[in-house]
Amino acid sequence: ALRNALHTGSLQPAGLGEMAGEGLGRVDEPTPETGTRGDKDVKAAPIPDDLLNLDTANLFDKTRTIQGEVVRSCRKGAKQVATVGPASSSMEMLEKLFLCGVDVFRLNFSHGEHEEKLDLIDKIRDIEDKYRHPIAILGDLQGPKQRCGKFEDPDGVELKLGQLFRFDMDPALGNEKRVQLPHPEILEALEPGKDQRLLLDDGKIRMKVVRKGYLVDGQEVEQEAAGATPFVECEVTVPGHLGARKGVNTPDVILNMSPITPK
User: Fold this and answer.
1) Residue 262 lies in a domain
2) Which pLDDT band, with edges at 50, 70 and 90, does 258 fall under?
3) Quick count: other Cβ atoms within 10 Å of Cβ 58?
4) How confident is the prediction for the chain on average, in pLDDT?
C-alpha cells in the first residue's frame, strides 16, 4: 500500500530543470506555467488570496501566468528538499513549505509507523492536486542496523588502547572484556589476519580482528561444530567509551544479508 501510494496521483513535471528565472518572494514576469497529468496538459492552480495576504507571503516562490494568476513557480535551476518532522507534518505547514519553494518532501522511515507515512503522502498528494503542480516524495529507508548488547554497568565500559575485547552470541550482560553481538552474519564473516576492522559508535572506537573461534556448551573450540556459536577477539586500536546498543560497522567485509529490512 505504501509503495502504491508513492505513485498514486503523481504529476509528471513539465519544464522542471529548466533555466532559473524566478526568485523567492516576488511575482515574476508572466509565464505559461503548466503541469501535466498523464497525457493531458493542465494549468497550474492559483494561490488563494487569503494565503497571498499573509505576512509570510513575501517568502512564497511564486510567479504570474499569462492569464495574470499568481501560482507556485516551477522553473528552477535547483530543487529544494525539506525533511518532514513532527513540527512540519500538518496540512497547513506542508502547504506553506510547498508555497515557499519546496519541491521534494523527504520522509524519514527510520522513525514513525507506516500509517503515519501514508497519512503524510496523502496530504502531499492533496496539495499536489490542489495546485496542479508536481511534488516529489523522497523515502529515506533506514536499512539494517547492527548493534552490540548491553553491559553490567548501565554507563558502559572504557576500552583501552591495545586491550583485547570479545564479541560473542552470549546474551549475558557485557563487561570490560566482552559483550554480546547478536548478529551471527557479522561474526561468521570476520576473519583474523586480514586487517579487518570493526568500527563502533559511528567510528569513535576502532578494533581489528585478531582471533576467531566457537563456543560449544561454554567451551572454546577452533573449528565450527554442531551447536557452536561464533566469537571474535579484537584488539582495540582507537580507544574510548563504549555504551550499550552502540552501532557496529564492518567496512572491510561483505555481509550475507539484505539491505532491505521488513520495516
Assistant:
1) no
2) confident
3) 11
4) 86
